[in-house]
Amino acid sequence: MRTTVGIIGAGPAGLLLARLLHNAGIDSVVLESRDRAYVERRQRAGILEQGTVDVLRAAGAGERMDREGLRHDGIELRFDRRRHRVDFPALTGGKSVMVYAQTEVCKDLIALQLKEGGPLLFEAEALAVEGADTDHPRVRFRHEGAEDVLECDYVVGCDGFWGVARQAIPAGLSRTFERTYPFGWLGILADVAPSHDELVYARHDRGFALLSMRSPSVSRLYLQVPADTDAESWSDEEIWSELERRFETADDWTLRRGPITQKSVTPMRSYVHEPMRHGRLFLAGDAAHIVPPTGAKGLNLAVGDVVTFARALTHREETGSDELLDAYSATCLRRVWQAERFSYDMTTMLHRAPDAAPFDDRIQLARLDRLTSSRAAETDLAEGYTGFPVE
User: Fold this and answer.
1) Global model pTM greater than 0.90
2) Which of 162, 223, 329, 339 is the most buried (most CB within 10 A)?
3) 8-state DSSP, 41
């Protein structure tokens, strides 16, 4: 099998890249180790930055998002039983975010790819990337019980942290930067209308809590818990009672309860691999970087990566110049590190460390006081949350 761009992974990054390349007249093949049903139901991110929304619309993948997604013009911060709303459009010149689950993004892009795009092979396990430093890299993969080879001009690894793409970069060329946090998020899906019309980020002495949603009738909520927590060790009653404690306010706001349909624990980690390119192999998304979910950056960073690659390859096709491809890693990493910084700031401002001292608590409250009393500080948060520009 032969193509211009071999894409490993049919998450939102790989699928969007295939769509962008198709629109630019560049052929690709997408290899996905899981079956279609799995890809379309795996719960991940749910907040799309303004830039991600714009890219999906321009790519022809925004129709259902615009119909069913929930535009949000701000978030609410809670601490010391106080409430403060951050108004995104007022602080950023009109930017907002969209609540639209990753599962739905994938469904939309899969439908487009199968209807109009190049080959999308499910249950096609990538085994190795070979010849990354040559003009014709290859992806060895297994599909329908047999091994095959995908010959490419370029390979883009959108196969996540545990994928094979990053392993093709020689260890002597790799640098990694990481931080593992001593807590995670106990997340639930509940069949109940959200208790607030925008996301609520709560800092509490008992730990962080987040009120989010998947639709007007489905709530997504999170509790900070120890990193080794078993989700099933929490009863439904314990979860709702703890959420009520952490979201408590001085006014008459109340938390709506409903049937919990899913529980899981998300680990908290920051990770960056440098470089994001080796020869004709390019890394995108979780294959190159991971952020704690506090800043809602993971999916959006992956979108920025593949937009950068698609622009660079289109530039080469039109001009013959490798300038933008050669700059891919440096270009992406500038945005990645800003997102890492933003996510770290949000995480450390809102989560209580297990060994936190009274001084640490007061510093967190001082940071929140500053943010809610300074337009400059509030603008910095709003600009980071709605998205750093893709160069």
Assistant:
1) yes
2) 223
3) T
